Fold this protein.
Amino acid sequence: MPRATCVTTFGEVDAPVATPPRAEQTAPDLRDLYERMLRIRQFEAKVDVLYRQGRVRGPAHLGLGQEAIAVGVAAALRSGDFSLGTYRGHAHALARGASEEAVLRELLGRVGGICGGKGGSMHITSVEHGYYGSYAIVGGHIPTAVGMAWASRIRRDGGVTACFFGDGTTNIGAFHEAVNLAAVWSLPVVFVCENNLYMEYTPIGDVIPVERPAADRASAYGLAPLVVDGNDVAAVREMALAAVDRARRGDGPSLVEAVTYRLGGHSVADGGAYRHPDEVAAARTRDPLVRLATEMAQSGEMGVDESDALVTRVKGEMDALAARVLEEPTPDAAGAWTGMWSDGSAAWRN
Amino acid sequence: MPRATCVTTFGEVDAPVATPPRAEQTAPDLRDLYERMLRIRQFEAKVDVLYRQGRVRGPAHLGLGQEAIAVGVAAALRSGDFSLGTYRGHAHALARGASEEAVLRELLGRVGGICGGKGGSMHITSVEHGYYGSYAIVGGHIPTAVGMAWASRIRRDGGVTACFFGDGTTNIGAFHEAVNLAAVWSLPVVFVCENNLYMEYTPIGDVIPVERPAADRASAYGLAPLVVDGNDVAAVREMALAAVDRARRGDGPSLVEAVTYRLGGHSVADGGAYRHPDEVAAARTRDPLVRLATEMAQSGEMGVDESDALVTRVKGEMDALAARVLEEPTPDAAGAWTGMWSDGSAAWRN
Amino acid sequence: MAQLTFREAVAAALDQEMARDETVVLLGEDVGSGGVFKTTAGLKERFGPDRVWDTPISEQAIAGAAMGAATAGLRPVAEIMFSDFYATCWDQVANEIAKACYMTGGQLRMPLVIRGTNGGGLGFGAQHSQSVENWAMCVPGIKIVSPSTPDDMWGLLAAAIRDPEPVLVFEHKALFGTKAERPAGDHHLVPLGEAALRRRGDDVTLIGLARTVGMCEQAATALAEDGIAADVIDLRCLVPLDAATVLASARRTGRVVIVEENPGQLGWGAAVAAILAEEAFHDLRAPVVRVSGGNVPLPVATAMEAAVMPSAEKVAAAARGLTEGRIPAATPA
Amino acid sequence: MAQLTFREAVAAALDQEMARDETVVLLGEDVGSGGVFKTTAGLKERFGPDRVWDTPISEQAIAGAAMGAATAGLRPVAEIMFSDFYATCWDQVANEIAKACYMTGGQLRMPLVIRGTNGGGLGFGAQHSQSVENWAMCVPGIKIVSPSTPDDMWGLLAAAIRDPEPVLVFEHKALFGTKAERPAGDHHLVPLGEAALRRRGDDVTLIGLARTVGMCEQAATALAEDGIAADVIDLRCLVPLDAATVLASARRTGRVVIVEENPGQLGWGAAVAAILAEEAFHDLRAPVVRVSGGNVPLPVATAMEAAVMPSAEKVAAAARGLTEGRIPAATPA
Ligand SMILES: Cc1ncc(C[n+]2csc(CCOP(=O)(O)OP(=O)(O)O)c2C)c(N)n1
Ligand SMILES: Cc1ncc(C[n+]2csc(CCOP(=O)(O)OP(=O)(O)O)c2C)c(N)n1
Ligand SMILES: [Mg+2]
Ligand SMILES: [Mg+2]
């Protein structure tokens, strides 16, 4: 297996790459990847403000700083492929194409929310775009993702499933059972561990007996230890393409550890005081958006003026979206008594 | 770390040894180990017969052929150390010193059963001898074992916990969570995977993505991959002594894979038809009792006549024990309504 | 007439549905070799390894894989060998499968079945004898089936597989050996959510599920000798619950004995009793009595296990107590 | 007088018991930094890392470690952050901890506490809002505590820690901010298994637990304005259940409204209703009515979540229905 040195937020990491980049692999459109990350960033920044204004019901977990993973992996998937994420799932839904408006309606408790007002921030789902849901119980969705990949395998339809979860999630039993089963059955699934270095308030290093939460567990499932710089969207996309390709070819699952940093608190209610300000400041310099903008400016692909204008435009769009949605009506109580069963009904007895 | 080539039932395995044999380690008394294995073998052979006669209520899972593991590990423990096992736990209880009579009473549903008639074969427990129970849910007891070791660690009392489970058990979430926690907290526990090559009726190779169910998972917990020939009681004892010593010194857990073979069915109700007769026949030649008897005969430590006489005597004792226990009274119904709470009572309401 | 055991009825239902619908796939521990209870015998041979999947001992992965496959459009039937082991995958069942359709506003569909062997009476002890349909009933969003006859085992399991919702099917392990006439025809279906009136009588209503239905029928026979005529209702499903049949019978007889293996502390019998106490109160002529599993973990020794299980004798005694206007003494513990 | 919040009461109880008994140790996710609900704030600083242990996200290992440590003679207090997550370690709780003492003939002892935040009303959605004390009540062998006031939160948690049995303590997350007078003295204990009569009145009995007790009290105030006098019973514990207090009140008033956040399909209210229907039947003057959580997973949007939760208004309406001799219409679904 070829090895590659990849620069992560930790410094250099010598990591094997599962498969060489595919011959037919096209160069990524960096501007496009940038804009996708930017929309997510601005969407979530707006959610943060709305939460502080008391407009968001329930908790919300933002992925500020982690956008390159959602966007990079989504760019490696085809329409018809499945993906699943966690309570920190806005980015994953939006990266597959979910409607910003419908997601925001869900968060603000308005009619037309993407889950009809029943899910909230932690359960954003957009089946229409292949995003099969955000799940709020750590690790609970990994077996589900494996089941979706199993269906693809049975149907031999070439579908691939991507499943996102955090570093802390590698300690839970469901992770072990699911990755193991996927390996035993050689299923077309790409497990993406977003290692943002924290399990809530606890540094991941305090609660794992190895250095790398995912990569150091891979061999237990007969898998290669794959690490990628999760703040480099092109690198993420490339790693994901290799893993997706392997899955689609029928060569089984991959477990990718994408190293990143969450710039905000664990949830919008958390100030993140357990982290040293220097650590956060250093992480900000590695912000995937800043980084890609700088790169593109250097290469001349997108000038600073242009990227500034883009930020202003997108921010304006999010402000306008929020203002509009806030004017919309809230759902009726009656909706609560519908939709437990797939025909829309909810009675358990006659 | 030193490595040692150990001969297992698979052939030769190059395996690292956690710690060099301790200087003060005494040579094992092979006759004693032999007799302990023999008593367990004859006890279980008798249980098999009794089951076929319809005398045993509920299922019973025998460890015929796996005795060297229970006996070898028990020989490395001190009184005051804890051990826990599974539904296949007769050997583990007896190896720590549990009363054959009390265990048999439990199996035959007589007054004075070791669990008062409430546990049956799958829950044999003898706290008096440090055997903290047999558990019938695969993997469910591994977290408990870790908790016992955690208590020893908190009290700094030098206690060590040994926890037995099967090869198939390495696929369940509780295994992952428990071994991981023990490693994170560096707890004094020795995990012993009895790899008898089968998960019920399924060859273990069909349901793991690696070659060795336990050893190939060890590195996921920062542990060394330890393999021992589980049919060689002296080797098991030696490996266990090293692991126990490491735990007692405060150097954390070990995960030992002891390779063996179950000579009978998964439970007494299973004929084991899914195994090729040649495979079983070959395994019989590696029977830990036959093997040790042969060795001792060769070295002159115990002649064939003597070992034959021993078998006859112990078998006679087991026959007599069974005959006696079968004459004993069965427990009253009233006992069912006692002992849910530790004061002996069982009421949940006034 | 050909006979069919309860055990064979499981395989018959699976066989029928797998032949009819190629999206029906099985998974579980040792299901390929027929399973510990031999309920899936012959299916791997008939349908091949792409339809019958042996799993590692990984209940979370089994239930989760069923969820994912259902989400993706298959109709998986997962086996949890003993229903006690639902505890090892309760998150998948109670928190994921039961809630996914509702919490995504109907975007996810869960046409799946999980089968598990349930119940005591065989000396399997506290971790292999529980009746845990009450656990499932605590959680809105899953259907619950527990047949009492080979005929229903076949028809209800087939209906569960065709149902668009997640259904847990509890197979009472003490019933596997029971036999009945094989249903006529090749295709057999019994709709979910309809209780069966197994016997008709106006003095008292006996309500059972799975193995306790037989106890109710035996008790009814004994009561008939005393001139007491009993309705015997087999609930068949807890969700959807056929409360209408229960209420109609209770209003007619005015006396009800509910017979459950669940611990009385909180079993399905309490749910039925609460419905009666609220909705049939004015028609009841006597207290609603439950004969429940004991409120202790399950012991192994013969006499002790029998003590904590319901029985035909206990049912008959409870019914007699009601018809004589006496309230039976509370069960110990 | 000094005030104490429900949240602070948790820490006060832990602090009191940890100071008194050095075998009391805590474990859970982020408990060292005070926990997500700040209920363990300050304890690691005071008692050190050998008494307060931060765990990985491994609920099975957490509950199992508590079991093992208790078995070995410590008194562990484990935290399961949200009670919904009991599903991820249900095997340890329901199959191991609850059964170990009984099934070993009393050889194993389980003096442990597991604390978990319970209940809805904050828009946390279907996987973080459940009231799952009904899950626990399905399983004989565990005690169940759920306090309604800061005073009880302190005293009952302290008593749970001293109790020789496994106790699950459900802390309602919508109560954390509630305040009351700080109990006098340094040591505070409230015995398990004694319901509290919060208010006295002879027309109707309102029975609540945790957050629904406040609803009962509010309803009682509203009813008093209509001349209806209500007993308000705070159960405090489900196991041991103080059935005597419930029965005595029901026999006096003849009318009972049970108010639970559990889904009505099978909640603790059904257990209480079933006891009343069996043991107080002849004294009841009206149907036993339950105001329960909706039989759906829990939605997030404000109006929908309110619709599926009990409320003081619903309780008062139900009580009025009874006292006017009318049976209220069944709750939808
Ligand atoms: C089974 C379970 N345990 C605990 C929690 C509470 N919880 C929510 S997020 C979280 C931390 C997850 O950390 P990680 O996997 O690293 O993901 P991140 O939040 O950093 O994206 C915890 C403990 C939960 N939701 N589910
Ligand atoms: C959680 C759980 N799933 C399934 C079972 C049923 N079961 C009992 S033993 C067994 C096989 C265990 O295999 P292994 O771990 O290799 O142990 P062995 O029986 O070979 O000693 C299974 C599947 C169980 N008891 N618990
Ligand atoms: Mg993280
Ligand atoms: Mg095995």
